[in-house]
Amino acid sequence: MARDAAGGDSTFTVLVATGANATIAVLKFVAGMFTGSAAMFAEAGHSVADTATELLLLTALRRSTRRPDRRHPFGYGKARFFWALIAAVSIFVSGAVFAIIEGVRTILGEDSEQTLAWVAYAVLAVSFVLEGISWLQAVRQVREAARRDSTTPMAWLRSTDDPTVRSVFFEDSAALVGLLLAFGGVGLHQLTGSSFWDGLASLLVGLLLTGVAYLLGRTNAGLLIGRQADRRTVLALRDALADRAEVEQVVDLLTMTLGTDEVLLCARVDFADTLDAAGVERACVEIDAELHDRFPDLREIFLEPVPRTDPVVRQRVLERYGPAGADRLRGEQP
């Protein structure tokens, strides 16, 4: 139930952002044509990039919910990460590059007279309200998700495997900062008569978008490559396995995020020597059922019986986690 609710919230958050950004893009382009402001054109490009991003995120939400099939037995959850990565590239290509070029052109060009500055101020004010509504929706969802996971909003944003909410939050935050930069550029141009300030504001908007695109792109690339589940989940899974009477020791534990709220678990465990082959089979079935019941995010579970003294497995664990991590995996203090 919690997963379904979160998915619905994500879709609503993206839809709110899409409507706000599409409306704002039109207003900014009109204001840019009336005023000739580079900062307004840069902000219009910013909003076009954000609108394209939201459409890509809606595609991500739709594609990632497809059920597993023969060609994709682990499901389509990573489609959300792929389209979110494309959205980050879109922010850079259609927003940042345009704003930087417009800013450099204005700074190096001749001073131009600003006209109808009040149009720019009015559009910026309306845009700030609309962006603020979208931003508040994203903040509300982040806070609710952080409260469900018993963590802080910033910690949730760093660790979440839901790229849609994170993208909307950072895009809207950047949009609000960008509007303030545009307001400053238009105001200083009006006060000084120099279009340098207008161009500088446009350049700063482009650099701001570049930073946001890099942040989102790096995070989504990590999820696509195959990131482990969050540390609390990994430790809870280890404890759940170690608490079983049939398990002598957890030898190795591997997890991978398959999609939003979808985790793959591969565990190598040393079963009690008193168990025969049938006993190991029954234990595997019971452990699978228990873990699926306790951890709804688990999509697939693979259990492999291995002796704790196996040198090959031990070396793999040491290479992956280091001595301290290997001790924690066994439930020992490093």
TrEMBL record:
Transmembrane segments: 12-34, 81-101, 116-138, 168-188, 200-217
One Pfam family matching this protein: Cation_efflux
GO molecular function: monoatomic cation transmembrane transporter activity
Membrane-protein topology: Multi-pass membrane protein
Record keywords, A-Z: Membrane, Transmembrane, Transmembrane helix, Transport
Cellular localization per UniProt: Membrane
UniProt GO cellular component terms: membrane
Organism of this sequence: Pseudonocardia kunmingensis
UniProt GO BP: zinc ion transport
InterPro entries assigned: Cation_efflux, Cation_efflux_TM, Cation_efflux_TMD_sf, SLC30A9
Cation efflux protein transmembrane domain residues: 14-224
Protein name: Cation diffusion facilitator family transporter
